[in-house]
Amino acid sequence: MRSKSLSFRLLVAEGLVLAAFFVLVAVVLEQGFRETAEQALQERLQIQIYSLLSSAEMNNAGEIKMPVGLHEPRFENPGSGLYGFIQNPKKKLIWRSPSAIGLDAISPPQLSPGKSAFLFDKHDRYVLHYDVLWQNAGGVEHEYIFTVAEDARFVSSQVEQLEKILRFWLLVAGVVLVSIQFVVLRWGLKPLRSIVKDLEAIEKGRKTHLDGNYATELQGLAGNLNAFISIERAHLERYRNNLADLAHSLKTPLAILRGCVESVNPVESFYANKDTVQEQISRMDEIVEYQLQRAAAKGENKTIKTVNVSVIIKKICSSLSKVYVDKGIIFDIAVPDNCLIYCEEGDLYEIIGNLLDNACKWCNHTVKVSISSNQRKARRNFSVLLQIEDDGPGIPVGKFNEILKRGVRADENIHGHGIGMTIVNELIGLLGGKLEGGKSNALGGMRWSVYLP
Questions:
Q1: Helices (H), 80-152
Q2: What is the C-alpha separation between 451 and 372, in angstroms, rounded?
Q3: Is 428 in a helix, a strand, or coil?
Q4: How many whole angstroms separate alpha carbon 45 and alpha carbon 179?
Q5: Domain boundaries, given as residue ranges, for the chain
Q6: What is the mean pLDDT of the chain?
Q7: Would the pLDDT of 409 be above 50?
Q8: d(CA 44, CA 65)
């Protein structure tokens, strides 16, 4: 199943947040409006009580008489939704409005003169009770409770109307905000889509690297991706070259072996050339091992591990002195005790091992190894300069580039300093360093200079 895009996920998340926000706003506004409507109704009912009080008359016997016609016509119409009652403190009904005919009197709570109570009863009516103390002409005080009630449908209808209006406009606002968020997300994620398109172009071979004008926040990502692409391409190229070198190196031993068995009597030919066959098999084994070692060298310069170059040099010199014990080579080693650089240990062994092995093969008696720190070359700063010199015949200046060319077989390089020099040059280049060859002023033979970052 196809995964959803990032913009879709963000849009859904923001839509859910907006929906939750609008629901909360609607609830708060509805509750606030309901409370405001109830407060306004309470004030209106208070005015209706004052209207009843102004219409009421008390005779000398202390009895309240209400006129036939009231100021509020709704009190006169049965079922109008507005009802009036007058009761004494013992909850005895004294008067009811014509609109309340057929309804039970609403029982008031315990009140003291001058106090009121605003309630919502079980019959869905808002009720306001008001306790008054009335004094007649004779100075006799009588207590009465005036009650005015109104059906809740008047408040409910206003709240429902508000809900309809509120929901409509919140829906419109939500659609507008989601549309704006969609446009903003599309615009904000445009640099990412640009990188994706450029990566697709790189995958299809139309581009070699990310070269777009990306946002500042994405430039680091683009740079890291370019570095990753460059390293992977370099590795792929090296693997292809190693396979090509392996195939090329095996052609000659295979041709010799084929010649040993392609005869009238292959068995006799095999035993007659037994030494040759064994020699070529050993040679093929050496070639395969050598090419596998080359393929294993990674050539990465972005490692966090440090390697002590001095220790590696001393180990290699100790091993080579045993290999070339018959030559009695003198190793002049001028290196500090600790010289740490960021590099893969295998790559460093490959570089120094090949250079020292060539120096031992072609020197007369002496090989010199030296290290200098903080060197500058070609307007670049390098942390280490490694120099390996010998007192052998050296190589003519015009042939330096020849021995570094790809495609030259190891067999062909056996007569010069070129054995392994192609991989040395490639590894130094991948590490961001520089390899230079020249004549040794001190010993008169070959001098290789390796600049490492």
A1: none
A2: 10
A3: helix
A4: 47
A5: 6-158, 217-295, 299-452
A6: 78
A7: no
A8: 23
Q: Could you say which of 1.10.1040.10, 3.40.190.170, 2.60.120.460, 3.30.565.10 is the CATH number of the domain covering 299-452?
A: 3.30.565.10
Q: Of 253, 251, 249, 252, which is closest to residue 278 (Cα–Cα)?
A: 253
Question: Given the DSSP bridges, would you call strands 125-135 and 93-96 parallel, antiparallel or unpaired?
Answer: unpaired
3-class DSSP assignment, residue 118: strand
Q: What is the dihedral of CA 237, 240, 242, 244, to 10 degrees?
A: -130
CB of 7 within 8 A of CB of 189?
yes
How far is 30 from 365, CA to CA, in rounded Å?
100
* Residue whose pair of structure tokens reads 């072609």 in the numeric block: 362
Question: 372: buried, middle or exposed (CB in 10 Å: 19+, 13-18, 0-12)?
Answer: middle
Q: What is the mean pLDDT of residues 203-215?
A: 78
pLDDT of residue 187: 80
pLDDT in tens, 413-440: 444 444 467 778 877 887 778 888 888 8
Token code pair at residue 439: 């004549």
Scored b (16 or more CB within 10 A) or e, 17-29 reads ebeeebeeeeeee
Q: Are 70 and 55 in contact (CB under 8 A)?
A: yes
pLDDT tens per residue across span 36-47: 888 888 888 898
Residue 318 has pLDDT above 90, yes or no: no
Angle at 404 between CA 401 and CA 408, to 5 degrees: 115
Q: How confident is the model at residue 184 (pLDDT cuts 50, 70, 90)?
A: confident
Distances (CA, A) of 336 to 113, 247, 305, 340: 107, 41, 19, 10
CA distance 387 to 372: 8
pLDDT of residue 104: 82
Higher pLDDT, 264 or 258: 258
CA-CA-CA-CA torsion sign (268, 273, 279, 285): negative
Other beta carbons within 10 angstroms of residue 50's beta carbon come to 13
